[in-house]
């Protein structure tokens, strides 16, 4: 099966720009070249259909790329199409990401009272990431709370540009740490389960869903403790004893709660 890009797009039910976008993101392999023409085949069509199915299930493009790469590696090693071991982990993550449904960018803006231009800045900073569902940009409902919280912080007088700069740094660091955390989970939870039993998918899902909120709480509490400690050290260094006493009193009364919905 030899297809030019327009023919591939029609067969897959997507636009030509979508095909090129998937290729630019490494989601589909590069076509072979015949003169000045790019030629695609059945593998590309199958891959795009797979991507569309996963998008409909609520996976993000980053999750899909990891999934299809693992599937391709398993296929090359075994010679057959197989289900990747990451399926259980990613399905649990996708289910949590979708939550109670999704909203469009306009709905996110309307429900939070944040202009769409500011929502775009928050996306660019990496605070929230849209997912594509049936070709449409959507946002998990928990992003509503994140945007509302960011708006409240802005109302306290923090400059938007500096806040977004910090958010971008945070997002980049979190991405790297998340990859390491998944590797840790893979090495010490999923692999032992796979070795103990050939059918570990349900147990992996249950373990991951128990682990994720606990890990989230630990990270949040550690961040809070670090900020408080650094703030108190700065106040002490300035000799602002009264402010130090008030801050200590506030932190003793405050209790951080992290819930997972």
Q: How is this structure best described in words?
A:
This protein is globular. The mean pLDDT is 76. It starts with a helix and ends in an 8-residue tail after the last helix. The longest helix has 38 residues, at 201-238. Among the domains are: 99-197, Multidrug-efflux Transporter Regulator, Chain: A, Domain 2, CATH 1.10.1660; 200-261. The chain is mostly helical and 261 residues long. The protein is 70% helix and 6% strand. The strands form 2 sheets. It has a 3-stranded antiparallel sheet. A two-stranded antiparallel ribbon has the order 1-2.
The fraction of residues assigned to DSSP E strands is 5-15%
- Main β-sheet: number of strands, strand sense, barrel status? 3 strands, antiparallel
What is the number of strand segments? 5
Which regions contain 5 or more consecutive residues with pLDDT less than 50? none
CATH topology of the domain at 99-197: Multidrug-efflux Transporter Regulator, Chain: A, Domain 2
pLDDT averaged residue by residue: 76
Overall geometry:
globular
Helix content: over 70%
Order of helices and strands: HHEEHHHEHHEEHHHH
Q: What is the class of the domain at 99-197 in the CATH system?
A: Mainly Alpha
- Tell me the strand order in the biggest sheet: 3-5-4
Quaternary state of this entry equals single chain
Report Rg.
23 Å
Q: Supply the CATH architecture of the domain at 99-197.
A: Orthogonal Bundle
Q: Distance between the terminal alpha carbons, to the nearest Å?
A: 46 Å
Helix count equals: 11
Structural class estimated from helices and strands: mainly alpha
């Amino acid at each position: 099966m030899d297809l030019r890009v327009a023919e591939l797009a029609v067969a897959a039910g997507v636009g030509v720009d979508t095909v090129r976008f998937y290729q630019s993101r490494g989601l589909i392999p590069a076509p072979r070249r015949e003169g000045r023409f790019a030629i695609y085949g059945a593998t590309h069509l199958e891959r795009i259909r797979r991507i569309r199915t996963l998008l409909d299930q609520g996976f993000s493009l980053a999750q899909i790329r990891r999934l299809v790469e693992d599937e391709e590696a398993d296929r090359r090693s075994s010679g057959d199409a197989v289900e990747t071991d990451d399926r259980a982990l990613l399905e649990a993550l996708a289910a949590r990401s979708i939550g109670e449904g999704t909203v469009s960018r306009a709905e996110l803006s309307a429900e939070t009272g944040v202009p769409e231009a500011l929502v775009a800045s928050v996306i660019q900073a990496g605070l929230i990431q849209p997912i594509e569902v049936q070709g449409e940009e959507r946002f998990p409902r928990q992003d509503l709370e994140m945007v509302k919280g960011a708006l409240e912080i802005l109302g306290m007088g923090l400059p938007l540009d500096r806040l977004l700069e910090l958010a971008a740094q945070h997002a980049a660091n979190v991405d790297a740490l998340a990859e390491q955390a998944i590797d840790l989970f893979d090495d010490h939870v999923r692999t032992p389960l796979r070795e103990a039993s050939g059918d570990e998918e349900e147990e992996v899902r249950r373990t991951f869903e128990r682990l994720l909120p606990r890990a989230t709480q630990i990270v949040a509490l550690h961040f809070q403790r670090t900020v408080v400690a650094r703030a108190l050290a700065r106040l002490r260094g300035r000799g602002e004893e009264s402010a130090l006493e008030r801050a200590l009193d506030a932190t003793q009364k405050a209790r951080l709660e992290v819930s997972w919905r």
